[in-house]
Amino acid sequence: MAEPIVPTCSDAHDDLYDRTQFGFWLYLMTDCVLFGTLFATYAVLHNNTFGGVSARDLFELPDVLLETLLLLFSSFTCGMAMMVVREKSKKKMLAWLLLTFCLGLGFLFLEIREFHHFVSQGHSWEKSAFLSSFFTLVGTHGAHISFGLLWMGVMMWQIGKRGITSHTLRRFTCLRMFWHFLDLVWIFIFTFVYLMGVI
Q1: Per the structure, how many domains does the chain have?
Q2: Does residue 113 form part of some domain?
Q3: Do 199 and 101 form a contact (C-beta atoms < 8 A)?
Q4: Is 54 part of a structural domain of the chain?
Q5: pTM of the entire structure?
Q6: Which tens digit of pLDDT belongs to each residue from 31-85?
Q7: Which residues touch 183 (CB under 8 Å, ≥6 apart)?
Q8: How far apart are alpha carbons 174 and 20 in whole angstroms?
């Protein structure tokens, strides 16, 4: 009679890693549905200005371009943090993560400043369906960025305290997927909302 195969520690770790990644992919798919719904809502309502400002009157591309560059470069630095894992250099990984965090924080600051500027000029989400859909779509992305920065801060603390372990690496892999996903969503926002809005 054949002996049952007992999974080794490595097998158990690989299985946990695969299940974690699969579960996180499922979460990202639900986020795709969420953002898809918000994009569809914006597409329907973006011309409903109720006699107020339109996208062409409101958006300033140079500011949005700076936000875009910050976020895209943060995606690069996040990837570099993953690259140095092979070197098992905690200092290098923390340095790249800190740079990613600062770039993401800069993006969030510019987005909040943009929202404040619009509201202070009397163009809040209450004024028209266009503004409601705009603030909801871009604000939801900003909320995700805020959560990502909080997660990144916790990750830096864990790596600083425990080093690069199988657990911290698994969590960072999910964070990296999340951050790249947000960059991809922003490219669609930049193109579909801002760029097409001023053309």
Answers
A1: 1
A2: yes
A3: no
A4: no
A5: 0.88
A6: 999 999 999 999 999 999 988 898 998 998 888 999 999 999 999 999 999 999 8
A7: 71, 72, 74, 75
A8: 8
**CA–CA gap between residue 24 and residue 18 (Å, rounded):** 10
16: number of Cβ within 10 Å: 13
DSSP assignment string, the chain: -PPPPPPPHHHHHHHHHHHHHHHHHHHHHHHHHHHHHHHHHHHHHTT--TTS--HHHH--HHHHHHHHHHHHHHHHHHHHHHHGGGGT-HHHHHHHHHHHHHHHHHHHHHHHHHHHHHHHTT--TTS-HHHHHHHHHHHHHHHHHHHHHHHHHHHHHHHHHH-S-HHHHHHHHHHHHHHHHHHHHHHHHIIIIIIHHH-
CATH number at residue 181: 1.20.120.80
